[in-house]
Amino acid sequence: MRLLNCKSLAFEEFVQDVPRYAILSHTWGDEEVSLEDMRSGAAAASERKGHEKITATCRIAQEQALDYAWIDTCCIDKSSSAELSEAINSMFAWYRDAAVCYVWLSDHTQDPAFVLTDEAVLASFEYRESITEQDREFNDPPPLTSKELDMRNHIERLKKCRWFSRGWTLQELIAPKHVEFYDRDWKYFGSKMQLAHILSWATGIDSGVLKGDSLDEVLVGRRMSWAANRQTRRVEDMAYCLLGIFDINMPLLYGEGEKAFTRLQEEIIRSSNDLSIFAWTAPLGDKRSFRSLWASSPNEFKSCRFLVKPALEWNGRGEYSITSRGLRTMDMIRIVRGESSRKGSYFLPLDCVDARLNKDIRFVSLEQYGPSLFARRKPWLYDTVVDIEVSQASRLPSAQYICCREGPDLESMVRMSHVGSVQIDFSFEAFDETSITAQPETDWDLRNSILLSYRRRHFWGCWRIRTVSDDPGVCVVCVQSDGWLLYGIFSWHELPPAMEKSDLLPSQVSAILQKLPVRTAARCPPWYHTVELSEHNLGGDSDGVTGTLLRIKSRRIAESQNSRTGVKTRLQRLFKKRTWP
């Protein structure tokens, strides 16, 4: 670590036994003094505007019996990419280990007639913060007193300082234990401990964290919200300035743009089991219906300000990891069945709740677009579900993958996965809709009742559903092969055992069907079921995509005594030529 000697203004390097030092937190301005400037001589460095903050830092440090200081403008050799990478990855630790951190607000002049550290006013702010945590945006807060109103106006002035809007200063506020604030004239006006509740109000950072509570106790999504609305000069630095907040180390790749923030999220996933990293919401101006799991920037975490852990973790036993196919999940994605308004919806519970709504679990809504493949659906929605609905939802038992690759083709890919698919519509007067199962399970989109084709020329599906009467139920089978669709309806006991397998090839299913009595109807007393086929706009998120509709109509046998049941028809009646787009 390279430190500046406060007396000689010469640099000294330490590998071990680093002496106590002061550290500066500030915003960069014109004519900053670099390492090269300092090494060129005192005369050259002193001519630059940035030299004043160096001498002021060293002066105050010496007054506090500190012989060394660290200032980012001149203590890093920025011409060395290796040293710059090491410094950025070590920055949080350097600020954490400093004896004191001086925050210099170059654009703020503190009113000497007003004391920001007035204990009585601060106590009222502390109380207001505690009730705001529960009631913000839901109930009107108590009216401000005159002193509180005066305090708020001063805080608003303080918030307008550039220091509060920069990305790098976030960790510089959180990491050090002792922080002192100075205005543009280097006049001291309070410490982090004294101003904790004011700083919390100004930055959104938990006051407990500012007083020394562990960051590990704060959810990832909530920590990300602290960086919302902050800026950095380079796009990549918006990720790099957060490394210490999440205890992450990773190489710097300037030029990668927003991919740096994606890499940060991937590293967080690898080192944490905190699902709140997916609790972001897209801005209202983002009209994309589908997104990957990754947020594009910290700004999308604004709604995570009050996230806390729920009383019961719903995905505590689930497993997930990053793979080339996306986020691999096991026993985590849920499907809503029954009479719920969300019937058929796929969702991923995130094991976090808004502190103001303790029973509302945040979740990610999902859309299936491939065998065991999902994309995030309607990412601009602030989605919550009450805990009782989570407990009643079924888990998808096999491994599932959620898209982690953002790109302009994702929306098209999801929509086109429905081209040529088969949608089934049961008459639910006769059937128990909660009992429906499908094979292959990975191709069945329960939310839309669609057997997904994924644009394959060969696929098959088998649906089983119970009736509301005592008979076992019916099976509907279809197979797509080179543009031809073969389908039929059978009672459960009529389907051969060979159809029980889920790994059958379409050609095998076709061969099995052609050996069976051909029918478009099935007699299952007291019901008589028929199948009708038609072209159909799949609708929903696949609006404008055409597929095939198999409509199952059911009548009581008494209503259809004059109908011919179980009639064998020519095989050609069960085939329909499909035209592929």
Describe this structure in words.
The protein has 15 helices and 29 strands. The protein is an alpha+beta fold and 581 residues long. Among the domains are: 2-104, no CATH class; 275-413, no CATH class; 417-577, Sandwich (Mutm (Fpg) Protein, Chain: A, domain 2). Strands 8, 9, 10, 11, 12, 13, 14, 15, 16, 17 and 18 form an 11-stranded mixed sheet that branches. A 7-stranded mixed sheet has the order 2-1-4-3-5-6-7, sandwiched between helices. β1 (2-5) and β2 form a beta hairpin. The radius of gyration is 32 Å and the shape is elongated. It starts with a strand and ends with a strand.
- The CATH architecture of the domain at 417-577 can be given as Sandwich
CATH topology of the domain at 417-577: Mutm (Fpg) Protein, Chain: A, domain 2
- Structural class, by secondary structure, is alpha+beta
Q: Proportion of β residues?
A: 25-35%
Annotation field: number of helices: 15
CATH hierarchy, class of the domain at 417-577: Mainly Beta
Radius of gyration over alpha carbons?
Answer: 32 Å
3D shape: elongated
Gap between N and C termini, in Å? 64 Å
What's the gist of this structure?
This protein has 581 residues and is α+β, with helices and mostly antiparallel strands. It is built from 15 helices and 29 strands.
Give the helices and strands, then pairings.
Layout: E1 2-5, E2 11-13, E3 21-25, H1 35-40, H2 42-46, H3 51-63, E4 68-70, H4 81-97, E5 100-104, H5 119-135, H6 146-159, H7 168-174, E6 179-182, E7 188-191, H8 196-203, H9 207-210, H10 220-226, H11 237-240, H12 259-271, E8 290-291, E9 307-308, E10 319-323, E11 326-330, E12 334-335, E13 346-354, E14 357-370, E15 373-377, E16 384-386, H13 387-392, E17 394-395, E18 399-402, H14 409-416, E19 422-426, E20 437-439, E21 444-445, E22 450-451, E23 458-465, E24 474-481, E25 484-491, H15 506-515, E26 521-524, E27 527-539, E28 542-556, E29 575-577
Parallel strand pairs: 3-4, 3-5, 5-6, 15-18, 19-28
Antiparallel strand pairs: 1-2, 1-4, 6-7, 8-15, 9-13, 10-11, 11-18, 12-13, 12-17, 13-14, 14-15, 14-16, 19-22, 20-23, 21-22, 23-24, 24-25, 25-29, 26-27, 27-28
